[in-house]
Amino acid sequence: MSGLVARNLNMVPFVSVEDMMKLVLKTGTERFIQELAGYIRDDFGRWERFDKTPRVGSYGHEGVIELMPTSDGELYGFKYVNGHPKNTRDGRQTVTAFGVLADLGNGYPMLITEMTLLTALRTAATSALVASHLAPKGSHTMALIGNGAQSEFQALAFRSLLGIERLRLYDTDPAASEKCKANLAPLGFEIEIFRSGEEAVEGADIITTATADKRNATILTDNMVGPGVHINAVGGDCPGKTELHRDILLRSSIFTEFTPQTRIEGEIQQLDADYPVTEFWQVLAGTADGRRGERDITLFDSVGFAIEDFSSLRYVRDLVGPTGLYEELDMLADPDDPRDLFGMLQRAAARL
Predict the structure, then answer these.
(1) Does domain 11-117+307-351 have CATH number 3.30.360.10?
(2) CA nearest neighbour of 148 among 125, 123, 115, 177
(3) Buried-exposed string 58-70: b where 16+ CB fall within 10 A, e elsewhere
(4) What residues are annotated to the active site?
(5) How far apart are CA 84 and CA 64, in angstroms?
(6) Looking at the whole model, is its pTM more than 0.90?
(7) Which of 65, 92, 220, 349 is deepest in the core (most CB within 10 A)?
(8) What is the pLDDT of residues 323-345, one digit of tens each?
(9) Is the domain defined by 135-304 classed in CATH 3.40.1190.10?
């Protein structure tokens, strides 16, 4: 159990963006990703214990706001997250998020935390965890198509879990690729920037697509994908948004998180509703095959699922307690007599 306990019943521990950054840096970013991947693996290993539902979304012209809840019967967690690609024009993040972990036994929140940074870390940790079971053995080179806010985290995750050292970058905005290279080159990566996606994927063992535009697009065409590669398709995460040509899907062994959600939001929304896919937890459980041969194209149709956020909340709760990198928020009413909420209000009035 975690040592993270509020001093009083009205107080809830809160991890701010500032404290999250300190926590990640104190731990070490790659170690943080590795340990977080371990929590995700453990929770996927007890998949059948969790409540599972596609996330609840409110879609607008410019983007989406979603709630992602789940419970393992003892703890309850949810994440609030948005996706608004045009935000960057106003100096805002495309994705922002916060999350709550609660005790299912009494309903009290145990942790409130920023999850904008944490979502980037958990998405990368999940990508690399899945790739560690599906990518070609001895992979060293990854193409990163889309070099926005997620790209550096993906690179660090794939190095820490798979040993990826060579990166081949492409983005429709050259400044994004230059930003990614400037951030990662001092960390020891061998990096090349290319003028097209076709050039970037040449010789890559793994192809990661992480674009933000909320529309059907063809980031990878069928002729760009040769036998034996692993595709980590991160960008598709809502209805009407895809990155891969349909023919690539038909040539691939496809792996999902929670298939009913992925059929709504992922690359497989392009396929028939009964098209066969494999949920990643089945590979971990040994009930389904992962990579079947050297020429197999494996595709992780990643949309992000609530259990990954639950794992992230558990990890932060366990990690942050001894560090003191949190505040306590006066979030919960705590009258002397639990039945006398109005009396608490009246006594407050007398003090004003």
Answers:
(1) no
(2) 177
(3) eeeeebbebebbb
(4) 237
(5) 7
(6) yes
(7) 220
(8) 999 999 999 999 999 999 999 99
(9) no
